[in-house]
């Protein structure tokens, strides 16, 4: 496979959507061209901010006191705002992410050993599996989101009083063709929100998993190098040259991991908060429908099911990849212990301490420097959201 086929395989559909949104950090285009805000990025971000997030936050304020209406409006405002913020963050840090993408392309082009490529493909398949699950949840959410609102659109097409997807405080919007234009722009904004959340969440998790694959390969390279010296297949000078290359490569991977964390740490802090509130308000809507025996269209019920699956899957993608990063970064030190260091000359064995020392601090994906992403954080987020749900139910009663 060539490098473009490799990237398409690794990043699955997220690469195409990020390119459509104008935020794909392509290292092949000129830097001056990349720094200019892409027209597609401006259209998508403005559509989401102006036609979804802003109207729904206004509706939250207008519905103050009515918990059910506030929760319904806040759910879409929160989700769309996060999608738009992720687009802005990815575009803003695009110049920093371009060298990282160039490094990933170089890794796929220079990996000639079967065992190196096998490791990269194994980790890439895990990333694709998570991305595919996110994609299925996103596609289901979009299909039933569009179905629900299009059915409502055609049902009220000939009525004098018609409602938009997200209500605006203007009377002129009920006149044709202004109503139809704004209605479909808002539908597009909601669709963009889902795709932005899915594509960027998949993109970041796959970036982290790629670093994990390279750490595994580096550990295997170190093990092979030590075994070669232990069996006297190479000289001591060759060993030191190989070890120096491994240390340089290790530092490069550490910088890549810190680059990812530096670009997305603040956004990931918002992701934790947004997911907590999102799960709270969605489960509140489901609880209200069940306990109050509300007559809700089946399409909306299925939409909420896919919506919950999307929120959970995207959060899990971050937590799984971050947990894998912590594990593989600390295993570099254990890799030194597991190799035949005891068969090396003492001066060569001491050189391995550089790698052990650098691996004492695990690489992490942080949430605004306040916490570390992990499977444990995933459970705590769900637990906290259920606690907020009990507060909402108490306020409603």
Automatic annotation (TrEMBL):
GO terms for biological process: signal transduction. Keywords: Membrane, Olfaction, Receptor, Sensory transduction, Transducer, Transmembrane, Transmembrane helix. The keyword Iron does not apply. InterPro entries: 7tm6_olfct_rcpt. The chain crosses the membrane at residues 37-54, 130-151, 195-216, 268-289, 301-322. It holds the Pfam family 7tm_6. Signal peptide: none annotated. GO terms for molecular function: odorant binding; olfactory receptor activity. It is a multi-pass membrane protein. The keyword Transport does not apply. GO terms for cellular component: plasma membrane. It is found in: Cell membrane; Membrane. PANTHER family: ODORANT RECEPTOR, ODORANT RECEPTOR 83A. Belongs to the insect chemoreceptor superfamily. Heteromeric odorant receptor channel (TC 1.A.69) family. This is Odorant receptor. It comes from Cardiocondyla obscurior. The lineage of its organism: Eukaryota, Metazoa, Ecdysozoa, Arthropoda, Hexapoda.
């Amino acid at each position: 496979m060539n490098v473009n086929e490799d990237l398409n395989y690794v990043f699955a559909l997220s690469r195409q959507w990020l390119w459509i949104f104008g935020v794909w950090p392509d290292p092949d285009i000129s830097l001056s061209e990349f720094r200019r805000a892409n027209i597609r990025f401006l259209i998508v971000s403005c559509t989401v901010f102006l036609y979804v997030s802003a109207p729904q936050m206004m509706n939250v304020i207008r519905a103050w006191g009515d918990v059910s209406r506030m929760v319904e409006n806040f759910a879409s405002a929160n989700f769309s705002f996060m999608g738009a913020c992720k687009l802005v963050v990815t575009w803003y840090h695009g110049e920093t992410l371009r060298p990282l993408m160039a490094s990933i392309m170089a890794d796929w082009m220079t990996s000639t050993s079967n065992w190196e490529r096998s490791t990269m493909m194994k980790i890439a398949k895990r990333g694709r599996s998570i991305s595919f699950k996110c994609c299925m949840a996103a596609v289901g959410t979009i299909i039933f989101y569009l179905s629900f609102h299009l059915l409502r659109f055609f049902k009220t097409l000939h009525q004098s009083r018609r409602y938009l997807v997200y209500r605006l405080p203007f009377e002129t919007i009920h006149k044709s063709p202004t109503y139809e234009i704004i209605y479909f722009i808002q539908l597009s904004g909601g669709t963009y929100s889902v795709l932005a959340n899915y594509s960027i969440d998949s993109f970041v998790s796959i970036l982290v998993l790629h670093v994990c694959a390279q750490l595994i390969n580096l550990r295997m390279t170190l093990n092979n190098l030590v075994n070669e010296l232990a069996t006297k297949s190479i000289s001591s000078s060759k060993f030191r040259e190989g070890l120096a290359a491994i240390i340089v490569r290790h530092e490069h991977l550490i910088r890549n991991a810190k680059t990812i964390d530096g670009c997305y740490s603040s956004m990931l802090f918002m992701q934790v908060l947004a997911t907590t509130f999102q799960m709270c308000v969605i489960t509140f809507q489901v609880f209200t429908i069940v306990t109050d025996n509300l007559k809700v269209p089946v399409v909306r019920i299925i939409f909420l099911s896919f919506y919950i699956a999307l929120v959970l899957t995207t959060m899990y993608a971050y937590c799984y990849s971050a947990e894998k990063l912590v594990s593989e970064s600390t295993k570099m030190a254990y890799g030194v212990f597991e190799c035949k260091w005891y068969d090396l000359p003492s001066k060569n064995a001491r050189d391995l301490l550089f790698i052990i020392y650098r691996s004492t601090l695990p690489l992490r994906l942080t949430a605004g420097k306040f916490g570390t992403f992990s499977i444990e954080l995933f459970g705590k987020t769900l637990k906290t959201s259920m606690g907020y749900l009990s507060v909402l139910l108490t306020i409603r009663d």
